TrEMBL record:
GO molecular-function terms, A-Z: oxidoreductase activity
Family of the protein in this entry: Belongs to the short-chain dehydrogenases/reductases (SDR) family.
Pfam families, A to Z: adh_short (PF00106)
Keyword field: Oxidoreductase
SUPFAM superfamilies: NAD(P)-binding Rossmann-fold domains (SSF51735)
Record carries keyword Iron: no
Gene3D superfamilies from the UniProt entry: NAD(P)-binding Rossmann-like Domain
Taxonomic classification: Bacteria, Pseudomonadati, Bacteroidota, Sphingobacteriia, Sphingobacteriales
UniProt source species: Mucilaginibacter rubeus
UniProt-recorded name of the protein: SDR family NAD(P)-dependent oxidoreductase
Amino acid sequence: MNITNKTILVTGGGSGIGYATAKYLSEKGNKVIISGRNAEKIEKAGKELGLDYIACDVTDAVAVNSLVNRMESKYADLSVLINNAGVANLYKLGEGAGAFEKSKQEFETNYFGPVRLTEALLPLLKKQPEAAIVNITSNVSFHPLVVLPTYSDTKAALHSHTVALRLTLSKETNIKLFEVMPSLINTDATKEMGGEQHGLPPLVVAEDIFKGIEEDRFEIYVGETGRQWADYFANPVAAVENFNHGLF
């Protein structure tokens, strides 16, 4: 799929992967709009990048509806949606862990958010000559990390949803559905888990998204994810234990 001269919406565009992806795709000749729940942060990012920006919390139905109305009225040529907004809680399951509240917060943003926004924007995307949805999941979508247990749950759910929606849309529309599975990336959100020391720069994800879409690779593995995927399907038990070595 051609990924130039497109109008693209990137959620969670105020920092990290979203910021880097918005910047990279803009430099490739696309009109990029970024959104984020923190109004000051997304305004700052928009001004730094010279991009249009919209404050929107993807867990808020009213805010999402407003965002969709704005896209329909001002960006009717929207052809690419990148669902990147996400939150994660670093902890371990067990007595007193607060897993219910943590998972509820994570699912609202990481799963229900993109599910709702995607469905709401499908009518607009269907109008374009070619269109794409890009869901950012993770290497934990196929094997959980015990210190990101319910975050892993959300990404596994989004992976499953992505596969089902891809098959459905392939029969009914010209919308292509891509899934991006990064390994550890150096962002503000990964500092507590060694992102600064061991993570890849967010630009790597942006570059792989661009290449993956161009090459119609519907599952885009970033960093160590491709090797981890192969290891998991060769021996799931050993792969999960190796992935969590020293953490349990």
